[in-house]
């Protein structure tokens, strides 16, 4: 693996390990949930494996999270930008609140389009 790829694999493995431990899961339990071998989970967490999207998706689902949340700390959004601030704020809110904000944004953007006509 190239050095930048090794670093990415290591960061992703650390993120997976952190989420697994937060949920009180062993590597064996995560392996059972995701259909992956326990040894493979260990290799992933140590950054020794270059993962496929399919494997990442299995792990994310097994941890009850999205790919975006799984990858967030690996390549975090710049929280100094307005978009970054919006994403951080919304990610901390319940899904119902997120849906409400989305509906509000669509209404505002639609209103802006109509105003321009």
Describe the protein.
This protein is mostly helical. The protein has two domains: 3-64, lambda repressor-like DNA-binding domains (434 Repressor (Amino-terminal Domain), Orthogonal Bundle); 82-116, no CATH class. It has helices at residues 3-22, 27-34, 38-45, 53-62, 67-72, 82-91, 95-116. Helix 2 packs across helix 3. The termini are far apart.
Summarize the structure.
The chain has 117 residues and is mostly helical. The chain has helices at 3-22, 27-34, 38-45, 53-62, 67-72, 82-91, 95-116.
Write the layout of secondary structure elements.
Blueprint: H1 3-22, H2 27-34, H3 38-45, H4 53-62, H5 67-72, H6 82-91, H7 95-116
Fraction of residues in β-strands: under 5%
Tell me which CATH architecture of the largest domain applies here. Answer: Orthogonal Bundle
Q: Separation of termini?
A: 54 Å
Q: Assign the CATH superfamily of the largest domain.
A: lambda repressor-like DNA-binding domains
Please tally the β strands and state the result. Answer: 0
What is the domain total for the residues?
A: 2
Biggest pleated-sheet summary: none
Low-confidence parts: none
CATH topology annotation of the largest domain: 434 Repressor (Amino-terminal Domain)
InterPro entries: Cro/C1-type_HTH (IPR001387), Lambda_DNA-bd_dom_sf (IPR010982), TransReg_Diox_bact_type (IPR050807)
Protein name: XRE family transcriptional regulator
Keywords: DNA-binding, Transcription, Transcription regulation
Domain HTH cro/C1-type: 16-70
